[in-house]
Amino acid sequence: MSPRSRSQRRADTERRLAEDIDLWVATAGEDGAPHLIPLSFDWLDGTIILSTPTTSPTGRNLAAGGTARLALGPTRDVTMIDATAEILPLDALPSAQADHFATRTGFDPRQEDTEYSWFLIHPTRIQSWREANELAGRTLMRDSLWLD
After folding, report:
1. Cα(102)–Cα(128) distance, rounded to whole angstroms?
2. How far, in whole angstroms, is CA 60 from its chain's centroid?
3. 6-143: which CATH number, 2.60.120.260, 2.40.50.100, 2.30.110.10, 3.30.420.10?
4. pTM above 0.85, yes or no
5. Helices H, strands E: what count in the chain?
6. Could you give the C-alpha distances from 141 to 77, 121, 135, 137, in angstroms and in order?
7. What is the pLDDT of residues 102-142, one digit of tens each?
8. DSSP assignment letter at 91
9. Kind of pairing, strands 34-40 and 67-72?
10. Which stretch of DSSP H or E encloses residue 141?
């Protein structure tokens, strides 16, 4: 397969963010130990919305470190996202956004007995590639700005 143009990669990435439901979230603890977990997400106005138990390793790592690396798609069509994280209590997200998350993902953290938080994930760098021939030009976003 010939490499996709940057505009095609961006369109494919935005489609995946709009249509996929789950992604991988990698964080690191204060001791540097990595943690990787699949989570459901919502994509709204350039922000990825996640929810996980506040005291889980991912919740603690996102709150303490404020950064994450996310991955979408299979290994031969991957999107990697480096991002900053903002933590919100469950009642701080507008109900329309929380309802949208619950409908899209089939999971409503507001209904759980365990204490959950919302995590607003703000992409700072996005890369996308399929094969080695797409490694050049794989960066689609840098410093939170889409590249032309």
Report:
1. 27
2. 16
3. 2.30.110.10
4. yes
5. 3, 9
6. 17, 14, 14, 11
7. 999 999 999 999 999 999 999 999 999 999 999 999 999 99
8. G
9. unpaired
10. strand 139-142
